Amino acid sequence: MNAGRLGGPWRWGRALTSISGPADGPRLLHFADGTTAETDLVIGADGAFSRVRPAVSPAVPQYSGVSFLEAWFSDVDNRHPEIAELVGQGSAAAADGERGLFAQRNSGGHIRVYIIRRAPADWIERNGLTIDDTAAIRALLLAEYAAWSPSLRRLIADNDGRYVDRPIFALPVPHTWEHNPTVTLLGDAAHLMPPLGLGVNLALLDACELALALARSATVADAVRAYEATIPSGRSLS
Q1: Which of 94, 164, 179, 213 could potentially form a cystine with 227 if both were Cys, beta carbons 3.0 to 4.6 Å apart?
Q2: Other beta carbons less than 10 A from residue 22's beta carbon
């Protein structure tokens, strides 16, 4: 979010609720703490359920029908040697068409596992559970993966702490919006997609393209238009 008239380069720790003001600016930012601030350019880099996106697009993320449940394993080489060996220094994956497992070694001796299933977005609530019901969720998952090998079932059953629910949402493709000289989008706010290994990279590329456009263009409006011509599957209707 461009600081514009905020009186400093950035303001951290304030949640944006909405933006208002005329399309040609200045824009007024409304924060959850009741404060407001005026700016000349708003960059919606606020993720899947962007509060900036509605200023230029009516699109809302739709549930993909696939749910990820995240599990964490700590100090894996000492506490979970079998899982550490299975995953190695990179990643491991298995799938049967309806469900899958994806494990990834992270820094600090951690391994993150995604338990991937076709399920309603509210499958936990439909089973009368909450995300804090770790043992009950584990039992339900182990029943679903009953035919899988014991070494793979450890990726479900031996996690440290509770699971993290991550239903997968996506924006329509292509996601387009009318050009606006005072508001633009990048990253998941512009082109939310399933986690295929591209999301963060595209967000970084968007940010670079926008920075270059701002540096090279005569006006902010020209920069926004030039940047939006570069956005993959999310360019504006200029």
Answers
A1: 213
A2: 9
The predicted-structure confidence for 19-41, as pLDDT tens digits, reads as follows 999 989 899 999 999 999 999 99
Residue 206: which of 178, 181, 236 has the closest Cα?
236
Record the tokens describing residue 117, joined without a space: 């299933």
Domain with CATH 3.50.50.60 in the chain: 16-61+172-228
Res. 11: pLDDT tops 80: no
Q: Are 55 and 178 in contact (CB under 8 A)?
A: no
Question: 16-61+172-228, which class in CATH?
Answer: alpha beta
* Tokens matching residue 179: 């050009």
Residues of the chain with CATH 3.30.9.30: 62-169
Residue 9 has pLDDT above 80, yes or no: no
Window from 19-33, 142-156, 194-208, 217-231 with minimum mean pLDDT: 194-208
Q: Which amino acid is at 32?
A: A
